[in-house]
Design goal:
single chain; mainly alpha; 10 helices
Amino acid sequence: MLLLLTVGAPAGAGQGNLRLDALFQALRATSDEAYAESVEEHIWDSWLEHPDGDMLRVMRDGVLSLNADDYASALDAFNTVIATDPTYAEGWNKRANVYYMLGDYRAAVDDLRHTLVLEPRHFGALTGLGLVYLALNQPQPALRALDAALVLNPHLDKVRQQAESIRNHLSGTAL
């Protein structure tokens, strides 16, 4: 069924990709967790797409640096990506991840908000925003961000658990 959702969509369209509407609809409609995981992977793939192959290489290098905890190199790479194409939402999202890891929460919030302006359905950015607000000891905005992520992707079990934990804490029923 997923193949039918992606046929005829333009390659390299990123967050403006026409496939995303159908993918998000499928994600919300399914109760099949394996299928939901596959759809979510396709959404992430769409967000990563970009028509500039050189920029994708820089993006890949940044992700590899981020995964290797080389935050200086990752930050350089994502700064280059954003400077090259400031409309590429995933560049902003990845740089927010670096800022979060560096403890620069204000910069992370700014980049996550920019991501959401470019791609309002970015459940990864909303989840990241929730984590930043938790790190800042701001549970109410954290809960709002996590709940918004769950509206877009109801299959984020760890996000749901975190939201419930915050809700219980706020209501005084935490264990």
